[in-house]
Amino acid sequence: MLKELPWPSKYKPKLSEFVSQKGVDQLVQALNNFKPGKAILLHGKQGTGKTSSVHAYAEQNDLEMIELNASDLRNADAINSLIGNAIKQQSLFSKSKIILVDEVDGIAGRQDRGGLPAIVKLIEQSTFPVVITANDTTDKKFSGLRKKSILIEFKPLDYMGIFEILKRICAAEKVAFEEDGLKMLARMADGDARAAINDLQSLSSSKITKEKVEEMSSRDTTDSIINALIRVFKTKKPEIALGAFNNLNEDIDKLFLWIEENLPKEYENPADLAKGMNVLAEADKFRGRIRRWQYYRFYVYIYDLLSVGVALAKDKKYGKMIDYTQSSRLLKIWIANQKNIKKKAICSKIAEKTHTSTRRAMQQFPFFMQMYKNNPKVFSEYVGLDKDQTTWMSSKI
Predict the structure, then answer these.
(1) Labelling 297: which of 28, 105, 335, 347 has CA 20 to 30 A away?
(2) Which of the listed residues 178, 203, 218 is the one where a domain comes to its end?
(3) What is the pTM of this model?
């Protein structure tokens, strides 16, 4: 049995293997009848097959795939450079090609101003099919893109469709299962096939039963962060690394810091370290998307990358024993916050006396420091500083 890849990657479906997803048939028809000047915009929840169906079409038709993620297309200049080059360059070996712009929802906010109009303009120029994916395009900022696109909805997969996918993988991996247990696993995925396949892999060491699935969904065992790091750093087997961080009672931001701190200690080979840090960067992109879009299913991909992705970044296991430590950055942040607590309390009193905001008082603090320096007693009495605050102010002179 192959163990080098997480199962969602290992079992990317062929076009004929997509089940209960009408969007795939519409995509095939749109690509077969492609005419320049219009893009194909696939929209729907994560895990419904948007990206994988484009890959499957390209593979079946021997087309070159140019894939760009919206997180790399931060502004109009980047879009014109990356997509512009893709639509102008001749494909390798004179093949035709498909240009895939994944997760276009990421083009939003001030830093991406002009991005969507730039994409629309390039769609008009492209002689190759441009396929764009998004979770939600109802926002008015996408109106120009919608007008220039064939819209295809990828609806959440029904649980029986996901059940058939899981059953096919169980047969290939020789994983025993009870039908009720596998159906429960399919229902839990809430239409996300990738999440269901990840869960299946994490349970695949023994027979899949209803009781086992219930235990997975409700368990609250807290693992040690050190044990979880050992599982990831000391293996190259995805089935061991997968789920290493699932039961930690740790904030996701702290988990990033733990891995960032200890990765250089573990991965001595510069190439391994570089690959590990790249995986960490990819996970951080999903963390940013969660903050922007409040789409919490992305946590599935973060945990996959931090566990399996980091584990497979190395060429070989390292046998040395490492004393894993917490990042000192947390302490530095705490110390900085403690310093600001006193300053903010003083500025709050200054703001009240000067009829301004605490924020403005913080910005003008150097001037207030100079006033205090000129006459500490008068300043302290007027503002109403206590003994600790006057001591703190005096220490800054």
Answers:
(1) 28
(2) 218
(3) 0.55
